Amino acid sequence: MTTKQVTDGNLDAGDFVLDAMGERWAGELCQDDYSSPSYFSSEAQDSLRWRYYRCQTAGQNTLLYNSQNQIADASPGTTRLASRGKEGASWMADLTNAYNGTSVVRGLWTSVLGGGTWQVLIQDEIKSAEKASQWRMHTNASITYSQSGKRARKSLTSRSISVAEVC
Questions:
Q1: For the chain, what is the domain count?
Q2: Residue span of the structural domain in which 54 resides
Q3: CA 56, chain centre distance (Å)
């Protein structure tokens, strides 16, 4: 989503960061070299700025639909935001206008399981999609995949988390 004020935005509607157990499991790539050619060219859809991986949709923790960048001047809407205090929180956003009219809703839920263990669910609902999409998350963790490829264990320092694809 662009800033509309200065040329410093990213195509990142639906982006998230995940911190747990004192570690950053899903992180931002942050800014590139500000002296790079055309880095501040504009935030128009055809801007050279979007050629930099950290600025384009592929460089964000969000969906990449049809291998294309999101719409630069999109204004996604939050459809629901709720906090349950120490029990968790939820957030949903309608990202449809960021994906050129393809219906995309992203939801994020946190909840406490037994023994003080937290669960995070990131759910994407894509309707009437005619092209392939990729779910993207950038991490510094070491990743070990199960044989099926639908489960993974991410490790940082002496800590680890489990990740699963739920269809």
A1: 1
A2: 18-74+122-164
A3: 12
Residue 137 lies in a domain: yes
What average pLDDT is seen over the chain? 90
User: What tens digit of pLDDT does each residue of 34-61 get?
Assistant: 888 988 889 999 999 999 999 999 999 9
The distance of Cα 146 from the centroid of its chain, to the nearest Å, equals: 23
Pairing mode, if any, of strands 159-164 and 151-156?
Answer: antiparallel
pLDDT for 112 equals 86
Of residues 36, 58, 60, 31, the one with CA closest to residue 48: 36
- Residue 31 falls inside a structural domain: yes
In a domain, residue 117? The reply is no
Q: What is the mean pLDDT of residues 80-92?
A: 88
33 CA to centre of own chain: 22
* pLDDT at residue number 1: 55
104 is a domain residue: no
Q: How many Å apart are CA 88 and CA 19, to the nearest integer?
A: 14
Strand-pairing partners, residue 121, are 109
